[in-house]
Write a structure and sequence with these properties.
Layout: E1 2-5, H1 9-20, E2 28-31, H2 35-45, E3 48-50, E4 64-67, H3 71-77, E5 90-93, H4 100-107, E6 112-117, E7 127-133, H5 139-150, E8 153-157, H6 164-172, H7 174-191, H8 196-216, H9 221-227, H10 234-242, H11 248-266
Parallel strand pairs: 1-2, 1-4, 2-3, 4-5, 5-6, 7-8
Antiparallel strand pairs: 6-7
Helix pairs in contact: 6-11, 7-8
The structure holds NADP nicotinamide-adenine-dinucleotide phosphate.
Length: 268
C-alpha cells in the first residue's frame, strides 16, 4: 500500500493517474490537513483520507510514501514518516528543489529516497518527470516509483542530481513558457487587428494543436517547423524575426539559465 502526503494539485493528479491505471482505492491512504480537499478526494476516488500522520492506522506498512507537500513545509512534515524507513518504505518526493541530502536529513541516512520533478501537464496524464534515486533505493523500489510516475506521463532517470536544476528550468517551469507563448500570440493577433476573443481562441488552439502534433509526430520539432515554412512565405517572414540573432533562441537561453540559477538558490 501507499501513503500520499499532500492531496493538493499535483498529489491529486497523481492519485487520479494511479487509480486509472488499476490501483484499488483501498491501496492508498491520503494524508491531507485541509478538510475540504480531503472530503473531495474521498468522495471522488473512494480513498481513505486522514488529516495527519497520527491518524494513520497503527499497522500501516506502506511500500511507498509519496511526499507531495510544498517545499516550504517539507522540513516540518517529512520527519513524522521517517519511522517507515525501518519497515522498507521508499520515499518519493515531488517537492521542487529539495535535495536527496536534505530529505535524508529528515528521513534518516539509510532511507531509500527518490527525488523527482514532475510538471503540471500531469493533470491530463501528459506530464514528464525526471527522477533521481539515493543509493539506498533498491531495483524494485525504483521500478515501483517509475510506474507511479508514469501513471501521469513520461519518466526519465538521471544519476547526476546536479542536473535537477536544469530539469526544473526546462520541464518543471516549461509549461509556463508555453502558456506565455499563447498569451503573446493572442496579444500580437489583437494588435494586428483581430477581435481580442478571436485572437485568444486562435492562439490557444494553435498552441494546443501544435503540441498534440508534436506529441504524435515522429519528426523533430525542427522538421515540423520546416514543413510549415515555404520559402518566401508568411511563416518564413515571421521566423526571420523569431530566429534572428536577438530572437527567441538567446531569449530562451537566458530564461532557462535564470530558472536554473534560481533553482540552485532555492535548493535545500
Ligand atoms: N504544481 C506544479 O507545477 C509542480 C510541478 C513540479 C513539482 N511540484 C511540487 O509538488 C508539490 C505540491 O505542489 P502542488 O502544486 O500540488 O501544491 P498544493 O496544491 O498546495 O498541494 C500541497 C498540499 O499539501 C497539503 N499539506 C500541507 N501541509 C500538509 C501536511 N502536514 N500533511 C499533508 N499534507 C499537507 C496542502 O494542504 P493545505 O492546502 O491545507 O496547506 C495541499 O493540499 C510541491 O512540493 C511542488 O514543488 C509542483
Amino acid at each position: 500500500m501507499l501513503i500520499l502526503v499532500g492531496g493538493g494539485k499535483m498529489g491529486a493528479a497523481m492519485l487520479g493517474g494511479w487509480l486509472d491505471r488499476g490501483m484499488r482505492p483501498e491501496e492508498a491512504i491520503v494524508v491531507e490537513p485541509s478538510a475540504e480537499i480531503g472530503a473531495a478526494l474521498a468522495a471522488r476516488h473512494g480513498v481513505t483520507v486522514v488529516d495527519g500522520p497520527e491518524a494513520l492506522p497503527p499497522d500501516t506498512r506502506p511500500e511507498v510514501v509519496v511526499l507531495a507537500v510544498k517545499p516550504q513545509v517539507m522540513e516540518t512534515v517529512a520527519p513524522a514518516y521517517a519511522r517507515f524507513a525501518a519497515t522498507g518504505s521508499v520515499f518519493l518526493s515531488i517537492a521542487a528543489g529539495k535535495t536527496l541530502a536534505f530529505l535524508a536529513r529528515l528521513l534518516g541516512d539509510g532511507a531509500a529516497v527518490v527525488r523527482s520533478m514532475p510538471n503540471t501537464p500531469a493533470a491530463v496524464r501528459r506530464g514528464v518527470t525526471v527522477a533521481c534515486a539515493s543509493p539506498a533505493v533498491g531495483r524494485d523500489q525504483r521500478d515501483r516509483c517509475q510506474s507511479l510516475l508514469e501513471a501521469v506521463g513520461d519518466c526519465h532517470w538521471i544519476d547526476d542530481e546536479g542536473l535537477m536544476d536544469a530539469v526544473t528550468a526546462v520541464s518543471g517551469s516549461g509549461p509556463a513558457y508555453v502558456f506565455l507563448l499563447a498569451e503573446c500570440l493572442a496579444e500580437a493577433g489583437a494588435a494586428a487587428g483581430l477581435p481580442a476573443d478571436l485572437a485568444e481562441k486562435l492562439a490557444r488552439a494553435t498552441v494546443a494543436g501544435s503540441g498534440e502534433l508534436l506529441h504524435r509526430a515522429e519528426e523533430s520539432p525542427a522538421i515540423l517547423r520546416r514543413n510549415v515554412t515555404s520559402p518566401g512565405g508568411t511563416t518564413a517572414a515571421a521566423l526571420g524575426v523569431l530566429m534572428a540573432e536577438d530572437g527567441l533562441r538567446p531569449l530562451m537561453d537566458r530564461a532557462v539559465a535564470a530558472a536554473t540559477r534560481r533553482s540552485r538558490e532555492l535548493a535545500g
